[in-house]
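Morning, I've got a small favour to ask if you have a moment. I'm working through a protein record and want to make sense of it properly. The fold is given in discrete form, as structure tokens running alongside the sequence. Can you walk me through what the tokens say about the fold? Thanks so much in advance, here it is:
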Amino acid sequence: MHFTQIQPTIPKWDLSKYHIAVQSYPTQLTDVIKERWNDNEMGGARNSMKVGRVKDGLPSDDTLRYLLSVCFEASLLRDEGRGVRFRLMLRDPQQFSHDEDCPNGLQHLVFAKPIPLETNELRRLAQAAPFDRSLIGVRADLEGRLEIWGIIHSGSDWRRALEGGRCICNPLPHSLVVSVIDPAHMGIAKGSASICGLVAGKLTMASPSRFFVADASTAENSVDNELFALHEEARLRARRPWATLDTSLIGAIRQSLGLRLISAIRNGRHGGSIVFVPGRMAQRPATLDRYVRVKYRFSASASQRRFYDLLLRLMNALAESEGEIHGPGRVVRWNEYATSVDPSVMGIDEALSEQAHLLAGMAAADGAVVLARPLGFVGFGGEICGRLKNVDFVSHALDREASRVEIEATSGVGTRHRSVYRLCNALPAASAIVVSQDGGVRIVRQVNGKVTYWEQLPGDVFGLHGRGSFSSQELQFPASAKWRAQNGAGERLDREILGSRVPHTR
């Protein structure tokens, strides 16, 4: 009897050009942290490898390895049936300035006697320093031994910001921050800037999240240009001068909507998929059915573009309100939007949050929610065609532009992910957001002909550095018009869960 050996499917691109994921233990994080500590995006603090007290640099290699190992071991423990979750900052209490201890700053409470850094001490203190609001303060003594000196209270604004919350979140100082999120799941950051993470022994590198990753060079820019053109027409009809909107603001609001949507799906603990298809395809059901069969399809109406209409109303309301207060020379950026108390702005913002809840509810049904660019509802209960070609390998992007990736087999993920991979492989113009039941998020689209995803891990506490620093040119619109923004507000949301607003980075 003769047997034919079946060869495994090999991707058609050269694997030697890519980094292949390997398993990592916390001690191996030391080299990565040292390598990336002084990157420009990590902040300006210089590395310090000397034994003894540390400032905003790093301790010795042995001290750093011990710190990571203790945190990793603590993540595996339980305290009276509760999981151990905490944030820890390596910073001497004497380094906190008076400004940091102001009402909106960090409050540091110092123990009368420091406690040696041990696994069980972290387990006990984790309950007294809630993950969302406090950090455990740690320092190295003159001999390089680590000790717990107290509690740092940060408040929960940073958490609300990650969920699309309406707040201006002050970044943490440029000190080493270790976040223990789940068993064997840790994140490492320099202040608020993520460096890397460890999940089940796998090293994950920080990379900017790409929410609503429709082709930023075409689809999103065309939508922004159309919105600004309509906004300009409204200005010309106004009776009083309006303020000028920064060109980055629409992207920031779009990012906020993505975070609110993901937060709403996560809070439902059901997972879901949001699929974006070209607008022209959505108008041709027979063509769309070749890729996605939408069970609950909406008929054409103005309500399908409510997201789009609300964005335009919000732009006009912001320009009008800021112009009345500060005059036409005012440039409206993220901070002005996040701190606005104008009733029209707040009402429209709540209506946008209601849209996120609406989509999250649709995502709870079997199948994908299908949206058409720009910002139009197609339907839900979408079944991705099973005849599409299988995808055996995908690229995991390690940076914003996917210039560095690692190749992963698709055999380790579920049907929801694999179906989205098939769609993006067959339809290059498509993109998707996939939320797992455990809260993990993947943003999927094609890059250079390869299916690529960006990952946001459950409980990811990073991506806060550089908030509001948008590299964009300002459009100068002539002062004119008054636009009476229609207030389509829904019920006031629980701002501890969703809040309102969050900045965008491309």
In short: The chain has a mean pLDDT of 76. The chain has twelve helices and 22 strands. Residues 62 and 250 are 47 Å apart (CA to CA).
